[in-house]
Amino acid sequence: MSRTADAVGVHRVLEPAGVLPQAAWRLDASPQIRPDEVRVRVRRLNLDAASFTQLHDKHAGDGERVRAEVAGIIASRGKMHNPVTGSGGMLIGVVEEVGPDSPLGLRVGDRVATLVSLTLTPLRIEDELRDWDGRSEQVPCDGTAILFRRSIVATLPEDLPEELAMSVNDVCGAPALTARVVRACVDRGERPTVAVLGAAGKSGSLSLVAARREGAGRTVGIVPVEREAAMLRDAGLADVVALADARDPVGVAEAVAGALGAPADITIVCVTVPGCEHGAVLATAEGGTIVFFSMATSFTAAALGAEGLAADVTMLIGNGYTRGHAAYALDLLRSEPALKALFEARLAAAHP
Length: 352
Known about the structure:
Blueprint: H1 3-7, E1 13-15, E2 26-27, E3 38-47, H2 49-58, H3 63-77, E4 89-98, E5 111-114, E6 123-125, E7 138-147, E8 153-155, H4 162-170, H5 173-187, E9 193-197, H6 202-213, E10 218-223, H7 226-235, E11 240-243, H8 249-260, E12 264-269, H9 277-282, E13 284-292, H10 299-308, E14 314-317, H11 325-335, H12 337-350
Parallel strand pairs: 9-10, 9-12, 10-11, 12-13, 13-14
Antiparallel strand pairs: 1-2, 3-4, 3-7, 4-5, 5-8, 6-7
């Protein structure tokens, strides 16, 4: 096998042959490592929001059934890869063994968060997720995961609780790319208006703070219910907060235009449910940019919807990785007390 294939983990693919680990149906999650691999003792998974929402809705909030399905997915696929949403999440754990040829710079005992998706991470669970109630995105567990040469991983900060750092690292690609897009406008002498759909969630709230830090002229946070609107207003993370169901294209467009006086120059989509593509297109100005950060996004619907609406907009896929994204997101959290409080409230609600 070629060095490139080894570096990206093709040797761990069991079926179908010839694809990369993310596209595979099943991976070899055995704990024995190659010289360039790392084994992590897993302490907690963080399911991505789209995947958890789909599982929660499918089982009508029955935590035991959600737990059983997640355990079954991992056991059958050798990774956490939701077959409906196509998404997974990330994990935290402790480095257990480091191959002598690994370039990741890790040492045995390091506390780490993986910054690559669970959909491509060989994962073996040894406790059947017995300590998880199936009612929150964070999943306490015991097992092993394998990192490749091309894996992305960060050591956990000492000044933040593990669960809090994990929540931020799970979505750290969103604020980093938001910052890049806003900064590019500012560098051209513009002060863009920014709309964030799903603004009270993890990626949405971080993206609002990033947009403001990088010089956005005005920001609007779009949320579906008054409870979330009140949270955002109290936190002061957006210049304006407006109510709209992100699945209602006309409602979203009217909410954004009503808040900003015109469509947004930049629209960031951070929702966890499908069907929000057309609202983002309608809410964005001609020549503007849409960044899709939701794993529930249909990129076919986005592309064909923009075409059908004669919308000349640039659409970006948030791939979850931007250089320096973890450090950037954690710095946002540290520097914005209201943002940190919002994350802490989410964690407290998930673990009453």
